[in-house]
Amino acid sequence: MKEQLLKMLAEREGAFVSGEEASRLLGVSRTAVWKQIRRLMEEGYTIEACRNRGYRLAGSPDRLTAAGLLSRLRTTSFGRTLHLFDEVGSTQDIAKRLAEEGAPEGTLVIAELQTSGRGRMGRSWLSPKGKGLWMSLVLRPDVPVLCTPQLTLLVAAALCRSLRRQTGLDIGIKWPNDLLVGGRKISGILLESSAEEERLRHVIAGVGVSVNLEPDDYPPELKDKAVSLRMAAGRSFDRTETAALFLESLEELYGIYRRDGFGPIRLLWEAYSVTLGRPAVLKTPDGMVEGVALGLTAHGALRVRTADGSEREIFSAEFVS
Fold first, then answer.
1. Does domain 279-319 have CATH number 2.30.30.100?
2. CATH code assigned to 66-272
3. Could you tell me the CA-to-CA distances from 157 to 151, 184, 197 in Å, in that order?
4. pLDDT in tens, 76-99
5. Within a 10 A sphere around the Cβ of 238, how many other Cβ atoms?
6. What stretch(es) of the chain map to CATH 3.30.930.10?
7. The pTM is what?
8. CATH says 2-59 is which class?
9. Residues lower than pLDDT 70 in the chain
10. Measured CA distances, 88 to 219, 241, 320 (Å)
11. Per-residue CA distances from 57 to 31, 49, 248, 297 (Å)
């Protein structure tokens, strides 16, 4: 009934449909019509209700559709095999299962809402419905396990490049893969891999982008740490275009990486970095490291010069400051 009512409103092209007419055409009571109107409004539709005139569709939510995304893609494989969901626990879990079942490289899992989204270090990831991009991509790079850090940096560089192009915002990368604007986090990236005999079998690249979230969407503990593209730019963005631009950027850089190695990716990452040349305090598995971040190594580690003048290579750490 809800879909029939929505179709009826949309076909009137902004004209009012009386409650009496809607109930007659749908064969239900006017109370039942009102309940469905409320459900549509809860899903993000803007519907004007006017006494003695009825209901009018004034706006529709920004919904991702398979047809809409596929029509925008300019990729060869990334995103061409698409699994689109209204609500999932985590796109990572679905993409992992698909990869283990033999899904081809470039398979994309994307959802309007995640109830158990996760980020690095086991943290949860805020994924409200219809306001961001919550997606996971299957990669099958023919590289050794020790190259995994390079792939994390590659995904960060691709996302940073595509978001800068779309928004015009001065977005930068905080090592290894947090994207920031004005010092506040705008996205999260999580890579989870499976290996066999020291070679990667598959990598699941999870990406969350806060596209059109508003201040009230964030809990108090995140209000000073996180921001959306909409909040930073003062305008909303087409999420389908955000996804399409990212997949195009990632496929291009991934092709360069497979052809020319990590060198070009390292240069691009360093160009976007907001970490290099600044004092850093990092919590590593071996303890705290303080120094100045200098750049990336050929393997994707962070080079840090400590107070005694020596250099450390950091593969895994959490920034304390």
1. yes
2. 3.30.930.10
3. 10, 17, 28
4. 999 999 999 999 999 999 999 999
5. 15
6. 66-272
7. 0.81
8. mainly alpha
9. 44, 117-125, 321
10. 21, 22, 32
11. 18, 9, 34, 56
